[in-house]
Amino acid sequence: MEINTILLGVLLVVASVVCGVAIWALLEGVKTARSARTLADDLDERVVPLLDKADITIDALNAELLRIDSIVSRIEEVTERVESTSRTVQGVANAPGEIVTDIAERVRRAWKRHGTEATASGEARRAEAGHATEQAAEASAEDDVQPFEPQVPPVWPTTERLVSPAPEFGPEAEDTTSV
Q: Which residues, including other chains, have CB under 8 Å from residue 115's CB and lie 6 or more apart?
């Protein structure tokens, strides 16, 4: 029996130690649970108001985005109107220039035709003037009078362009207004 008593004594000591460790583990578990509960309460106190503030901020941001969207929509509408008005004004502004260019071209062609006729008549006038000058020189030699030199009007140029071309506008002109 002695072995039974020793084993019983050792078993009792081991059981007491195991019970002590279990009680210590239980106490540590309770402390950890209390700490976790305190942490959860602290998070509730701090995180929930932060989430509420974040929710309010997101709502305000969405409202501002809607306002910006409406502003951008208005800007697009105004841009379309300005573009349409610009095209209309450009057409109205270019019309007189195109008309003037057309008239100038017609006048140039008419002058060119008239210049060809005038060149022939101008040469005839010069020949007459030369003959008159010769007669005046002969007369002055006889009368000691200064020779008469008639002024011959200039002949219109036939090869020069009298009107400069108007600047080009419209869809085929180079676009210098792009951004």
A: 155, 156, 157, 158
Give the pLDDT confidence score for residue 179 in this predicted structure: 45
Angstrom CA distances, 126 to 74, 120, 123, 151, 154, stand at 74, 10, 5, 10, 10
What DSSP letter does each residue of 121-152 carry, written as one string?
HHHHHHHHHHHHHHHHHHHHHHHT-PPP-PPP
- Determine contact, residues 161/109, Cβ cutoff 8 Å: no
C-beta of residue 146 within 8 angstroms of C-beta of residue 157: no
Rounded Cα gap, residues 59 and 66, in angstroms: 11
Biggest alpha carbon–alpha carbon distance for the chain: 188
End-to-end Cα distance, the chain: 109
pLDDT along the chain (179 residues), means of 10: 85 94 96 95 89 94 95 94 91 86 89 70 63 59 52 51 50 50
pLDDT of residue 110: 85
Residues 6+ apart with CB under 8 A from 146: 140
Predicted TM-score of the model (pTM): 0.36
